[in-house]
Amino acid sequence: MLKFIKQHMETIAGIEIYPMISLLIFFTFFVLLFWWVFTSRKEYIEKVKQLPLDPSDSQNL
Fold first, then answer.
1. What is the DSSP letter of 55?
2. Distance between CA 15 and CA 21 in Å, rounded?
């Protein structure tokens, strides 16, 4: 099955660029996420960390 897919993919012109584009997109996303985590303010992180425990936001179900 994989041999058939590989053979079929080799016949498509210009398909070799798609793995490179996807790698670039994912690498860029994770680098930006890494940068955001290390440059975010500590007050914001503490506020977000406490959100699940905030009693003022509890709902009476």
1. G
2. 11
Find the radius of gyration of the CA atoms of the chain: 22
**Which amino acid does the sequence have at 13?**
A
**3-state DSSP of the chain:** CHHHHHHHHHCCCCCCHHHHHHHHHHHHHHHHHHHHHHHCCHHHHHHHHHHHHCHHHCCCC
Query: Can you tell me whether residue 6 is helix, strand or coil?
Result: helix
- Check the CA dihedral 51-52-54-56 and report its sign: positive
Q: Are 8 and 1 in contact (CB under 8 A)?
A: no
Instruction: Give the per-residue pLDDT at 61.
Output: 43
pTM as predicted: 0.57
Integer Cα distance of 56 and 50 in angstroms: 11
